[in-house]
From TrEMBL:
GO terms for cellular component: cytoplasm. Residues 22-57 form the RING-type domain. One of its GO terms (molecular function) is ubiquitin conjugating enzyme binding. Keywords: Metal-binding, Zinc, Zinc-finger. SUPFAM superfamilies: RING/U-box, TRAF domain-like. GO terms for biological process: proteasome-mediated ubiquitin-dependent protein catabolic process; protein ubiquitination. InterPro entries: SINA-like_animal, Sina-like_RING, Znf_RING, Znf_RING/FYVE/PHD. This is RING-type domain-containing protein.
Amino acid sequence: MDHFSVEDFKKSIETLLDIVRCAVCLETVQDEIVQCVNGHLLCGGCKTGLVNCPTCREQFSEVKPSRTIAQVIEALPTQCKHKKCEVYVRPGGDDHEKYCGFQITDCKLCEWEGCAKDILEHLKEQHPSTKIRTGEMKDMYIINFEYEKEMESNNAYFVDGQFFWYTISNDPVSKLFIKTCHAVPIGKCDDKFYLKVMLNSKETEFVSKIILNLDPDVDDDENSIIIPWKTVPNYIDSDGDFLYNHQIAKEVI
């Protein structure tokens, strides 16, 4: 017997997936599976309203597919649910779909929506004046900051292959001044990143550091640093500018 290569194995799996692919939704059949007299399979929900099989135009069979077919389907990998992604997820699922770069994300600077992996390209093409920051600790300013007025600003960071939105928000009604990081998934990352914020004045100092959760579904509160609102005026200089230092960087273990 000739050597059966990995590529041959992949082709065999793809053939099996084609056999159990619904002719209507083009996904692996599910729900109450039905078949026509020639054995073509459809999802139970996709058959609704159909008289004949869309593949061969023959009638549907009254015989239910065998349990073996269901077992084969359960054992097969399924293609990632995000459009254009060609990765197959193993039975039982894994973290690929959660961190897949083909999932839809939005831009915090405009109304664009697109693949998460394309966010950097979008910013460079549509927001060329926007600075994409890296992880160095830097002095930052909010010019003419009026802390009793509501404000929000969004900044883009790309640190060691991971993209973040860094949002600064001031809510005088709730008396909250918050700095939040949100990771945009472009593939699962095993590295750990942190957010560090430092404020200094003659009267007081504020330092806080948190390890960021890269799970795209995480609550923003988990990736936020809250600065005591009453202390904010201490960090506004004589020109009315708010000075702060912050850093988003990879945690060195």
